[in-house]
Amino acid sequence: MNDIFLRAARGEATEYTPVWFMRQAGRYQPEYRKIRERYTLPEIVRHPEVTAEVTLLPVQQFGFDAAILFADITTPLYAMGFDLDIVEGKGPVIYNPVAEPADVERVKPFDAGSGTPFVLEAIRILKSELNVPLIGFAGAPFTLASYLIEGGPSKNFIKVKSFMYSQPEAWNQLLEKLTEAMFEYLRGQAAAGADALQVFDSWVGRLTRYDYETYVAPHMKRLFAKLAALGVPVIHFGTQSMHLLSSMAAAGGDVTGVDTATPLDWARDLLGPRPVQGNLDPTLLFAPIDALELGVERVLRANGGRPGHIFNLGHGILPGTPPDSVARAVELVHEKSAVKP
Ligand code: CP3
Fold first, then answer.
1. Mean pLDDT across 229-249
2. Which member of 125, 314, 316, 338 lies 3.0 to 4.6 Å from 279 by CB, making a disulfide possible if both were Cys?
């Protein structure tokens, strides 16, 4: 097995920089769009053999150094009593959102074996077919709570923040339930064979540092302390989170995700020896190849040869990304980071 991704996640020096891209399986691939003509996203996830096929596709096509399980951060929410859908071009929509403290009471505890057996089965299939590590993942409590309270994607996060400020007890109860559930979900994925885990706190960057420390960090600390006992590397990812980076690193995870807007050299100076993941601008994949090449070089130069760098985008691949640019980006990372004998 090519374990260069795992070695970089542990902070070891590697012969080249490992690379994978968030949302590497998805709509920019004609093969994925073809599968989506027959199955919706939740249907793909409920068919382990289709999930495995979709997960493998970008790894086989582009030579990524890790695979990420195909699912969504909303996948475990159905078993917790939520009625939801993923709406094309919009994102997750929750039909029975959390509107008041009493709604927190009805959030059901989660068990990976009965709640998402299809996810565990997909991991078992993938483990027999992959020659690179498999990353399992879950949404972080704040990001999940933002969907559950807003009822869908949000621009200003007014409902979730109002709930947090006005109902601190119910807020903490909701985040405790989500923390417990996502730990169980991730524990199940690791037990089924996931080699690493990523926690996506995509929307947490919309909080001030004070609010993060007050309303979110205590839950994240509990989550990461429990995950550390699983013995697999854990990546902690956020976006628009430059002001939170040291707080997020302190909350936990072995590898800290760095978003596009954050200078990678600044992040490395701030975080010391802690491994990082990032942070090519996903829109550079739409640029002419020479601009893309310079962009890849800039990220590698910002890392400055320090061990413990996993190359990734600063956020997920965008629909419409030319697949040839993805192929070229992976080659460029491998070529330009290779340690010359
Ligand atoms: O990275 C991968 O290849 C694994 C698959 C993956 C998906 N969602 C599949 C998906 C992962 C890791 C996610 C995580 C996810 N889902 C996050 C965290 C990462 C991030 O980007 O910040 C979030 C916030 C979600 C919620 C969500 N699901 C959004 C915002 C959307 C996009 C809506 C749209 O149509 O633009 C989804 C849908 C979704 N999840 C798609 C995929 C491939 C695209 C929709 C489709 O195929 O129908």
1. 98
2. 314
